[in-house]
Amino acid sequence: MEYRQLGASGLQVPVLSFGTATFGGGNEFFKAWGDTQIEEAKRMVNLCLDAGVNFFDTANVYSRGLSEEILGKALVGLRNKVLISTKATFTMGDGPNDYGSSRLHLIQACEDSLKRLGTDYIDVYHLHGFDGNTPVEETLRALDDLVSSGKVRYIACSNFSGWHLMKSLSVSERYGWARYIAHQAYYSLLNREFEWELMPVGIDQKVSTIVWSPLASGQLSGKFRRGQPIPESSRISQGGGHGPATNFDHLYNIIDALDEVAEETGKSVAQVALNWLLQRPTVANLVIGARNEEQLKQNLAAVGWNLDIEQVKKLDAASEVDPIYPYWHQRQNLKLNPLPKFY
């Protein structure tokens, strides 16, 4: 298993982490992702460890804490061998302080996550989203206190805009507080908007990318085919998808290119789509999920080999979309605004 340094830190992480949003199936939305219970979770954890994947990702909001509880039980006796990532910010109750990134909510959320996970520290603690109601200074001071107390080792963010991330890094630098070392972001061959601003910020500020939903809610799994109905068993059909409505012509053009490269490499469509992401600047880790052990084995086989440059270029061309303003305007003068170097 390849390991990469996570941002401007000394932490080394495997290029794959196992996402446990499929654990628990606590409501209809998460049941569409999966319904893994403790015994199967233990088997999946061991499959990951056998493959060199010792990084496990969850969040308090996944099935309202049930994912964290199951992960904690699956990791009993293994804590010193693994890295755990969890998240806070989203709604966890009906009260006016049961959501957001206030000092009150973050400290309580961290304490609750520690109890559910059965551990006394979290390796990477993410804000699940940006809270526009709470001063950034309050949020970052609370996170710095959690780091200073030893309850959190490193902090990261997720689903931020470029200015959210840049402002936060500036505040951390100003006061000498812990800074975000990673940004967990939505990025795939189907959705490349991440490249327009967040990737350049990550390059400039040494913030690594942890990619969530790298197969675009299963649309790049190989099950979606031109001229065929959307699979009834897919996450999208069952109401567990993300983002705006899919442009299916664009999706199927990407699938055609993936099919060609899959035939050339002897790999699956999903494995090729995952491997393409690992060639992109700032990407340190992909969060892979699985409803069952066979899916997990397939996803784990996406590493240990690399697409060649021509194959990457083929996939780039099939997945390229015109950027929105101001990015199309900036691309008119690449001397002033050079694109990230992909090759």
Keywords:
single chain; alpha/beta; TIM Barrel; eight-stranded parallel β-barrel; two-stranded antiparallel sheet; 15% strand; globular
Question: What sequence of helices (H) and strands (E) makes up the elements?
Answer: EEEHHEHEHEHEHEHEHHEHHH
* Multimeric state: single chain
Compute the average pLDDT. Answer: 94
Beta-strand percent range: 5-15%
Stretches where pLDDT falls below 50 for ≥5 residues?
A: none
CATH class: Alpha Beta
Number of helices: 12
Class by helix and strand content? alpha/beta
Largest sheet, described in full? 8 strands, parallel, barrel
**First-residue to last-residue Cα separation:** 22 Å
> Order of strands in the sheet with the most strands?
3-4-5-6-7-8-9-10
Compile the SSE list and pairings.
Layout: E1 3-5, E2 12-14, E3 16-19, H1 28-31, H2 38-50, E4 55-57, H3 66-74, E5 83-88, H4 103-117, E6 122-127, H5 136-148, E7 152-158, H6 162-175, E8 180-186, H7 198-205, E9 208-212, H8 248-265, H9 269-277, E10 283-288, H10 293-300, H11 309-319, H12 327-330
Report on the structure:
- The chain has 343 residues and is α/β, with parallel strands linked by helices.
- The protein has a single domain, classed as TIM Barrel (Alpha-Beta Barrel).
- Helices cover 37% and strands 15% of the residues.
- The strands form 2 sheets. It has an 8-stranded parallel β-barrel with strand order 3-4-5-6-7-8-9-10, surrounded by 5 helices. A two-stranded antiparallel sheet has the order 1-2.
- The chain starts with a strand and ends in a 13-residue tail after the last helix.
